[in-house]
Amino acid sequence: ANRFVMHVNRQSLDIEPVREDLTIEIPVNLQSDIQSPVHVTISHNNAPFSPLMCDGKHKVAFNSKLLDCQHVVLRHWQQGDRIKPFGMNGSKLVSDLFADLKLDHCDKRNTWLLEADGNILWILGHRASALYPVNPGSQDYIMLLYQKSAEKFA
Per-residue confidence at 151, pLDDT binned at 50, 70, 90? Predict the structure, then answer.
């Protein structure tokens, strides 16, 4: 018995199968590259840090204190999620950020979040948080590069 759900998007009605995997948390080890469900290359302090090394969307940097976190996972967005975006005071609902980016339901559902000890650090491909900041010139950081694949078109 297949179940379907309908979503009203900006310019269309989308009907798709109900997905049961949206609450899954996938533990990750930030000591090595993440291969699945998305590909994230992780490098450790190759050169003194400069903010120009990051775009805040696909390439981000965090202080290596992040490696001390006990519970680091990749997961999908859930209602009520908040992020403390880099360059902004306070926090913002991830759903509001998605609305600002004009993401449709399918894109929201397929977007991955990196969470460490209960804090959203990165909305992969969209926005990094201000947590675990790296000071210019520091060599105490890790770089994460998200390589978006064609997985959703398969």
Answer: very low
Q: How many C-beta atoms lie closer than 10 Å to residue 145's C-beta?
A: 15
Quick one: 57 exposed, middle or buried, by C-beta within 10 A (0-12, 13-18, 19+)?
A: middle
d(CA 80, CA 27) in angstroms, rounded, equals 21
Predicted TM-score (pTM) of this structure: 0.84
Separation between Cα atoms, residue 116 and residue 28, nearest integer Å: 10
Q: What's the CA gap between 103 and 94, in Å, rounded? A: 11
Torsion sign, CA atoms 111, 114, 117, 120: negative
Label each residue of 80-140 as H, E or C. CCEECECCCCCCEEHHHHHHHCCCCHHHHHHCEEEEECCEEEEECCCEEECCCCCCCCCCC
pLDDT, tens digit, 9 for 90 and up, residues 37-68: 999 999 997 789 999 999 999 999 999 999 99
Sign of CA dihedral 77, 55, 58, 142: negative
